[in-house]
Amino acid sequence: SRTTFYNWNKRDSLQDLSSRPKTCSRQTPKWLERIVIKLRDKQNLSSIKIHFELKNRDILNPSTGCFLSESAIRAIFARYKRGYKWDKLKRKKAKVIRYEKQCPGELGHIDVKKIKKIKGDDNQKKYEALLIDDCTRLSYAEIIPDKTAVTLSGFLKSAVNYFKTNYDLQFERLMSDNGNEFTTRYKRNVSLHLFEATCKSLGIKHIYTKPYHPQTNGKVERIWRTLDTEFYSKKWFFSPEHREYELKQWIEKYNKHRAHLGINGLTPLQKLLKLNASVSLESHQHYETAKESVIL
Predict the structure, then answer these.
(1) How far are the Cα atoms of 25, 107, 223, 259 from residue 199, in angstroms, in the given order?
(2) What are 47-103's pLDDT values in tens digits?
(3) First to last CA, the chain
(4) Which neighbouring-strand residues pair with 129?
(5) CATH classification of 107-275 is 3.40.50.300, yes or no?
(6) In angstroms, rounded to a whole number, what is the distance separating the alpha carbons of residues 88 and 151?
(7) Going by DSSP bridges, is the β-strand pair 108-115/173-176 parallel, antiparallel, or unpaired?
(8) What SS3 string covers 222-246?
(9) DSSP 260
(10) Phi and psi at residue 4, in whole multiples of 5°?
(11) pTM here?
(12) CA triplet 286, 290, 295: central angle to 5 degrees?
């Protein structure tokens, strides 16, 4: 037609024009994109972790029309060049057998690792000890001067007191590796190890990982990685005291405010409160049932 001829005649070339709309009513707001990029840069969180973090902060609320899916967050990463450069080769992964205890305090995981020295440290090596609850992922960590049995026994007492005071949590069993700081089970004619004696005095059964299999103690190994990516790589410490203060603040944030993928996006404290609420409800129902049976 004449109209079609003149429309094509106005163009510089015969190539098809883009069909992309000039505006998009469902595009992610700029203020929300800035929050996503800030979480990515400062805490190095993945897309699903950012989704849970925004949900816990009540920023994502379907009732107000503010919703951001995991794929939309990945699209924001791509626009701002914040994505990971994954290896394109598909590697065959071994089947992983996962487990999780049902009751808080049923099993704890303890480990110690060497950390980098900072300005103000003496010439001695510095270590970090950590204890995590298998069920709720509640954690406690300290910077220690060495990894002897005496030091780790003192750390265990402090950790047990921390969990008892703050969360009313008592450990039944404690898993560690087979290092000399934890046990002498592979040495002959040796008296009871100091750390094992401390566990016994606290009423905790000490169990061990399979030799040369750190994945048996996988939950504490995973939090080491989280500390490296979200704490040590993002913080600058002016002194050993400043490092210890920041570590305590981060542990409190981890326990009370950080969404954890292993427990369906809940924080460790939320998981503990949820389990305590379910136990209280079951106890109340059991009491009502027993009361009705007595009346009948």
Answers:
(1) 61, 13, 23, 31
(2) 888 888 888 888 887 776 678 888 888 888 888 888 765 434 444 556 667 788 889
(3) 91
(4) 112, 142
(5) no
(6) 45
(7) parallel
(8) HHHHHHHHHHHCCCCCCCHHHHHHH
(9) B
(10) -65, -40
(11) 0.73
(12) 150
